[in-house]
């Protein structure tokens, strides 16, 4: 079913630039496993959100002023005076959160079904590069409204680089373009915030190219063997993705129209003030797990290294996972451990939002009175007062969770791969689909 | 191994629940909760309350607090007529210019002007308020967590301090302000304003009214947003239904 243009104009173009043939190949000839569940929708959703972000972002840039004295008010000008400006800004701000929700689900799907394993290591790597670029873009975008959280978030995060020995301080001044977060910082962040999404588009093209080289993984984790196993992408997955998109847009709209500031921080409606530090400086929710890891380590450089290490280790995943079976469906132990890992990531997100010096759990009772570490006695009896008998500090909880994060990736994953006995794999995707009743298939998709 | 993993998972779940429980019982101040007409999925601003709230703002708050993001023309959203808006704006003079001779001049305010600032700059504002800066109120309900209830609680939260509470010089005790010491003295007192519509001007009534007004200044497009949201979501529900039907049809030849 190769592409043969009938229209002479199309043929003229096609002989010089076979772009129609390429699209035709991607849609009609590209074989897609017939058993992809709705978990496979998040890739195309991420693409749609990227486009939404770029389009709304370009419109916002037409009305925004990247200057410390005007940035905050120009955002309010967008909210109040620009036609549908409020819609553009709320779409863009909530769109960033949606992008991370979709991408996190996309990544966890990859983890569950072993999508990163050979021959898809580069596909996984390119995805991680997109993830890193997204984080840089989102961070710089959050600085642009020049509210209190913008300013102090930028100060805290850029200061992390000062932990680098010898050159740290110079790097921080270089990033700031001065000796504090100020107008030059805002200007370059705006410039880079506009640039990076287009770099993301470039890497997305490579990501899709790598995807189309070996094809999609699927819930069984076994490769396509013959035509029985696959269907053309169009119309089967275009329509399935469109349904997924409509459901996603309902979710997006619920936040956009009814809780547009739910995922933001109230302090960012206060104009940036370098002389007033907010009580709690918290990053956007999608950075919280990494923020929790950063704060779990008492040493600044150690914290920074561990935080970046949390992402760096994901690059090694294809080699850390020793199991020859991809899908967790056939891996009884990994399947359980996977959900523990998900839970730990959620808990890290929660911990990232808690104050660094508080206690998670406190039990109160009578404790000995101590002054300078010396227990106070009176008439041979220890003096008692009411106090905390046992406390689980936020830092300790974060440390335990961080330890488990790395334990999972560096120890459990390789060990389980070696010792686990996987369940027998189906002979082919088609056999697996036939073995399940259509009703059951629908249920597992949900 | 499997059992171990499951028990770790369960333990993690339990600790997470315990954690949230412990947090919820934390020491955060619980705010008074008002059922605002502008809350909820279909809520709209109470026009009468917002108009009274504007009066409270102008007669009580405006002495110290600016509203620098709000233009007079936008008051038409609250039901003010063009004439009323022109008259309101013209009550203050604005510096404009330079004119043809290069001179700055004073002119009466126009609907496109924003509410006048009570102080020429932040330092002047601090100097007249014992070092505390009276914040601009344009965004106040969005700049505080649970802003509407916070503002209402704060305005009605001036009480005598507990016996063991040491109040710093020049501070006032407020049950809802973080740290309980606020530089602003209780701004509202019974009958501080006289409402044109005859509503009794109790502290509670004025606090509610000015909160509604300031909720509107913070989020003037809320009604447009909610009504568009309803249409968009209904459209998307139908679209999702259609896509689902098409998906079933397209996929039916496979099963």
Explain what the structure shows.
- The complex is a heterodimer of chains A (446) and B (255).
- The two termini of chain A are 33 Å apart.
- The mean pLDDT of chain A is 94.
- Chain A is globular, with a radius of gyration of 26 Å.
- Chain A has a two-stranded antiparallel ribbon. A two-stranded antiparallel sheet of chain A has the order 3-8.
- Chain A folds into 3 domains: 1-27, no CATH class; 34-283, Cytochrome Bc1 Complex, Chain C (Up-down Bundle); 292-321 and 332-365 and 383-421, no CATH class.
- In chain A, strand 4 and strand 5 form a beta hairpin.
- Chain A is built from 17 helices and 8 strands.
- In chain A, 61% of the residues lie in helices and 8% in strands.
- Chain A has helices at 8-16, 19-29, 42-63, 71-80, 85-112, 121-143, 148-159, 168-176, 183-214, 233-258, 288-296, 300-315, 317-320, 332-352, 394-419, 429-435, 438-445; strands at 31-33, 230-232, 359-368, 370-371, 374-375, 377-378, 381-382, 384-393.
- With 446 residues, chain A is mostly helical.
- Among the domains of chain B are: 30-70 and 114-220, Cytochrome c-like domain (Cytochrome Bc1 Complex, Chain D, domain 2, Orthogonal Bundle), CATH 1.10.760.10; 231-255.
- Helix content of chain B is 42%, strand content 5%.
- Chain B has 7 helices and 4 strands.
- Chain B has helices at residues 2-24, 47-59, 82-90, 122-127, 147-155, 203-218, 222-252; strands at residues 93-96, 105-108, 172-173, 181-182.
- In chain B, strand 3 and strand 4 form a beta hairpin.
- In chain B, helix 2 (47-59) packs across helix 6 and helix 5 runs antiparallel to helix 6.
- Mean pLDDT of chain B is 90; it is low at 12-26.
- Classes of the chains: A mainly alpha (446), B mainly alpha (255).
Question: Could you list some keywords that capture this structure?
Answer:
heterodimer, A: 446 residues, mainly alpha, Cytochrome Bc1 Complex, Chain C, two-stranded antiparallel ribbon, 8 strands, 8% strand, globular, B: mainly alpha, Cytochrome Bc1 Complex, Chain D, domain 2, two-stranded antiparallel sheet, 7 helices
